[in-house]
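WARN retry 2 of 3 for item q-0093 after timeout on previous attempt; input resubmitted unchanged.
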Amino acid sequence: MVHCLRGDRCGALVIAGVLLFGLTATAAPKPKPHPKPETQVALPADLNDLSMRITALETLYEFDFTAEQLNALRTLASDTAQKDARTVAKGNAKLLQGFKDLHAALLKGDDDKIGELKDQLDELKDDDEVDLDDDVDPTDAARAKTPEFLKKVKASQIAAYLAVHAEELSDPAEQMIDSLNEQRSGDSDDPEGDAQDAADDIAHLVVGLDAAKGKEISDQVVAWFKGNRDLKEDEFAARKASLEESAKKIVGELPAMTVIGHWLDYEIATLLSNPQLPGAIDNTLFARAQRK
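OK item q-0093 returned
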């Protein structure tokens, strides 16, 4: 717009401006905007780190956190990461490619490929050549900050996440019976480790983020497993009712919403403890910006 400073020159300036604008527009059409550069996200070189990055990305994808929530999560995660030393990862080219493919699909939000690629990656992880140390346990700092972040999460986001993980949730006493049945099959390569993992999962449902009480419950559940996993089929059937009662004595009878709340607390605390969470947040925000 031409602003006239003096009245005598106003008309001439306006006419000249209009003519100049017309000539410029005709001679030099507005250039087309440059296309946005392709997304280039640095992948961790270590397979343990890459696996944890994928795990964090999956959680962010399933919750579909907003940019504001992601930035809040990154701020909270500044001092919550698990820093334990990890054994050297063992893998192969197929595993690496599987990680890369799922990583790309998650950043693109490719719903059609994500489920398929996750299943393929699970199979690749079962290969005898593969040995990853990628488990993440909640840190004390993460446990403390979990309630603060959960206040920012919407009910619809929680519902969507629950829908994806519905099979992981069950009544603690029922889960004890189901886990005992699996252990009685004798198919495990690490029965002691599997019993401990199952007991820890059950304890999380019962007490949530209370580490001391969780260990107490977990120890009782492991002892219960050891005392009953050698039962024959007919003995198990005859004692099933009493087994259910003894399981309930250990874990109590909790309201369903309490169990769900404890499970959700543990999921967020585990996410905050993932050392690859900041990288996953940066990946997600950058990929979204490129899609706009």
